[in-house]
Amino acid sequence: MGILIAVEGMDGSGKSTQADLLYHWLRSKGLPVHHTEWNSSPSVKKATKVGKDSRRLLPRTFHLIHAADFADRWSRQIEPVLEVGGIVICDRYIFTAMARDGAREVPRDVIEATYAFAREPDITLYFDIPVEVGLERILKGRPELKYYEAGMDMQWTYDPLESYKILQTKIKEIYDVLADDGRLLRIDSTGGVSEVQKRVRKVLAEKLDFSNIEPIYPADRLAEQYRGSRLEWLDDMTEVIDDDDS
């Protein structure tokens, strides 16, 4: 089996930037790595967008549609790479559902049961920041919050900023409990990008053993460099599987 690394954190925590840097760091070592993001399944993404645009997603519907997205990516991307001994970096994992859906009052046992097919990651990095810092970072990039991002669907308040703070506070409380339970490893996400990445690499060096991961053949790495783009190992593997099934 390969190595499964999950990254979690509130909006504005910088986790996506850190996950991308982690991906390139491991690739520079010649290791086979696949990077997948939350709510990115081609089969489900369009339906999710329609639901968000029409503001028709209730908490349970939101829970199930994200679970469908994750299940599709699990079967097509995550599990196949792990089975051939690769590394998978998940930008958000089932703990996102626990935090976001839990904040919207979906029971924890329901969430756990929905995602019971997915195994526990080898390590889950929780990029921890104060709610106010996350909000400040987000508003620097765009002028206003999105409807569901702000938690306006819960009708706690008519003020998007206040609603966002309520939602993110609830999400952080759940993340903190998961960290206290040992399911997440807390990373201080304040400070510069390179500073946080140093913390990430130090933790991974201490907690994970990459020596059993078979590196990519030097000839394939060289070919990848000549092409100027990353080698899509998952696509290559899928083609082999399709050929075997034909």
Can you summarize this structure?
The protein has ten helices and five strands. It has 246 residues and is of the alpha/beta class. The model is unreliable at 238-246 (pLDDT under 50).
**SSE-based structural type:** alpha/beta
From the spread of the alpha carbons, the general shape counts as: globular
Radius of gyration, taken over Cα atoms and rounded to an integer in Å: 19 Å
CATH C-level category: Alpha Beta
CATH topology: Rossmann fold
CATH H level, superfamily name: P-loop containing nucleotide triphosphate hydrolases
Query: What profile does the largest beta sheet have?
Result: 5 strands, parallel
Number of helices: 10
Mean pLDDT: 89
Please give the alpha-carbon distance between the first and last residues: 26 Å
The multimeric state of the shown protein is single chain
Total number of distinct structural domains? 1
The beta-strand count equals 5
Q: Which spans have pLDDT < 50 for at least 5 consecutive residues?
A: 238-246
Spatial order of the strands in the main sheet?
2-3-1-4-5
Question: What does this protein look like?
Answer:
With 246 residues, the protein is α/β, with parallel strands linked by helices. The protein has a single domain (3-215), classed as Rossmann fold (3-Layer(aba) Sandwich). It contains ten helices and five strands. A five-stranded parallel β-sheet has the order 2-3-1-4-5, with helices on both faces. The radius of gyration is 19 Å and the shape is globular. The model is unreliable at 238-246 (pLDDT under 50).
